[in-house]
Protein: Lipoprotein
Organism: Rhizobium setariae
Amino acid sequence: MLTTLRSLFMPFALVAALGLMLSSCGRKGDLDVPGTPATTKNDKTKPKVEDRPFILDPIL
């Protein structure tokens, strides 16, 4: 019974160890610098919308 359990556990442990080793691989170095933010070229403001009452407003 013990050998059967060990024979099932060893491949699982090896696959788990291999997965951990491979998942730690990556590019070594500093993180990439984020790009510059996009600036808005449209300086127009939206017109104000009239506030109309809604039937559920008192509940909210």
The helical segments are 2-23. The chain has a mean pLDDT of 78. Residues 3 and 9 are 10 Å apart (CA to CA).
